[in-house]
Automatic annotation (TrEMBL):
Reaction(s) catalysed (UniProt annotation): N(6)-[(R)-lipoyl]-L-lysyl-[protein] + pyruvate + H(+) = N(6)-[(R)-S(8)-acetyldihydrolipoyl]-L-lysyl-[protein] + CO2
Pfam families for the chain: E1_dh
CC cofactor: thiamine diphosphate
GO molecular function terms noted in the UniProt entry: pyruvate dehydrogenase (acetyl-transferring) activity
Protein name: Pyruvate dehydrogenase E1 component subunit alpha
Organism: Oldenlandia corymbosa var. corymbosa
GO biological process assignments: pyruvate decarboxylation to acetyl-CoA
Amino acid sequence: MALLTSRNAAAGGKLLRCAAAAAIPTIRQLSSSASTITVETSVPFTGHRIDPPSRSVETTSEELMSFFRDMALMRRMEIAADSLYKAKLIRGFCHLYDGQEAVAVGMEAAITKKDCIITAYRDHCIFLGRGGTLLESFAELMGRKDGCSRGKGGSMHFYKKEGGFYGGHGIVGAQVPLGCGIALAQKYRNDENVTFALYGDGAANQGQLFEALNMSALMDLPAILVCENNHYGMGTAEWRAAKSPSYYKRGDYVPGLKVDGMDALAVKQACSFAKQYALKNGPIILEMDTYRYHGHSMSDPGSTYRTREEITGIRQERDPIERVRKLLLAHDIANEKELKDIEKEVRKEVDDAIAKAKESPMPDPSELFTNIYVKGFGSESFGADRKEVRATLP
Ligand SMILES: Cc1ncc(C[n+]2csc(CCOP(=O)(O)OP(=O)(O)O)c2C)c(N)n1
Ligand SMILES: [Mg+2]
């Protein structure tokens, strides 16, 4: 137990040391013109079998404002989902993303909706990034008809195919081979788009990930494996589950990059670099060093396997929204009041969406067998004796 405590403390210290290096004063404006601002990422990228991209990232005041707004909206949505869950309006599994927002917004800033994304169950904010609405999100969370999966998927199964978002998956790691399959389709069609398959540090130890990576590398598929390393798989710290927690190196023969996943601009730079690389050469791994503020899911208070100091330390030193707020203030793009006003607007948008979602009805019982089998395929359901057809599914 003593070992556990000291290793835990060591892990917490490491997270914060990285945080100290990432503290805002290290960001310096390299140059700025009316439209373009060049900002240095919090820490340099580290490459495995590849020369990393530059720390200098080009951005604009509009982009920084949109990062702030989008991340504030995501944060508010997750906090509201927490309250709705506690009020028993959301039931079943529910995994929140607050803390990790920079990964969702930075990735979107580098790609188009023709590029695809697939993720695990921590999917609400990825869905918003893909163009999903708050109403579709809250209605899905509450199992209502207006949800993005018509209220039949719930928290873990958000989808938006027209926005290139393929879910929303509950089996740890299973989305990675599916993502590589989407990349195979993209390569087959020659459409010059890529697929981002997101998975956690816990999922990084799954065998199917390595099988899919091997095949993707053999076929030079445009697959970008994004390990969102929030340092815990449920209540298990990364060092207890992984002999090598350098997830960006775990592809061995596949190149990798380690990225500060709390810095939206670093995420944007890495994703844009990875897209170009993958289209030319095949798969690449991005390890996003990030953190979740909530527990693993709503049934985990999140404070038994990590210290309060670790959580507050990261909030104070590495928070992705605070990083962008400081940039906006430092570059005189907005003042404190304007940013507070945006946060108020966002809160109202979330409240309005919840009110609308509550008015949405539950799905009709006839929906029970839809979206399971191919429509009109004549699937029949038999009794246990296999003699009598009990139902023909729609
Ligand atoms: C194959 C499989 N094994 C176990 C589980 C139970 N489980 C759900 S989430 C999880 C931890 C995954 O952690 P990580 O990949 O780090 O993702 P995070 O939740 O941190 O985003 C586990 C073990 C599961 N859903 N599927
Ligand atoms: Mg994890």
